[in-house]
Design brief:
212 residues; Glutathione S-transferase Yfyf (Class Pi), Chain A, domain 2
Length: 212
């Protein structure tokens, strides 16, 4: 059994979507970050960086923080949703792109544009421009592909699952998906997956999924 410590954020949803796709049993341990529960001593023993999500795998004794590490661990443990051969490194490339670029930059848009508009015009412009640049990068990568990684139509991997919850907040980012048609098609394609829909609402439903 896996314990998932999480909340209703894009980073949290990455791992709950993967667990739903894997179809393995897990127990949700909500960490309400609006009440600073991420700073509780017991949680810090699992996630020293006081960030969600984190997992404890009681079958192996592994406990982990950081979404990229968790997703790689789960994909390797169950041998699913990871590319093979040279495509493995393409998967790693785009997973790192999400963790180092897409997630952090869109998070800054949320902070300055969604939650603190008008307080820092320079930051709003800077991060909004970077968000659109990253959307263009993803739109180019998805040209002729159903998924981010692989040849031809591509293969569904943890790289897709890592990016999708951030794109699901395109309204926070004041992004019109119609401006990025390949991203729009990809977003809607994954939106139809029942596991993605279930994983979005972990640990609880806070809103309807945009576009559904």
């Amino acid at each position: 059994m896996i314990d998932l410590y999480s909340w209703t954020t894009p980073n949290g949803r990455k791992v709950s979507i993967l667990l739903e796709e894997l179809g393995v049993p897990y127990t949700v341990k909500p960490i309400n970050i609006t009440k600073d529960e991420q700073f509780a001593p017991d949680f810090l023993k699992i996630s020293p960086n006081n960030r969600i999500p984190a997992i404890v795998d009681h079958e192996t004794g592994v406990q982990m923080m950081e979404t990229g590490a968790i997703m790689l661990y789960l994909a390797q443990k169950y041998d699913r949703f990871q590319a093979k051969g040279n495509a493995y490194w393409q998967m790693m490339e785009w997973l790192m792109w999400q963790m180092g670029g897409l997630g952090p930059m869109l998070g800054q848009v949320h902070h300055f544009v969604k939650y603190n508009p008008g307080k820092a015009p320079y930051a709003e412009e800077r991060y909004s421009n970077e968000a659109r640049r990253l959307y263009r990068v993803l739109n180019t990568q998805l040209e002729g592909r159903d998924h981010v990684v692989g040849e031809g139509k591509g293969i569904y991997t943890i790289a897709d699952m890592a990016m999708w919850p951030w794109i699901s907040r395109h309204d926070f980012q004041q992004i019109d998906l119609a401006d990025f048609p390949n991203v729009k098609d990809w977003y809607e394609r994954l939106l139809q997956r029942p596991a993605v829909q279930r994983g979005y609402h972990v640990p609880k439903k806070v809103n309807d999924i945009p576009g559904l």
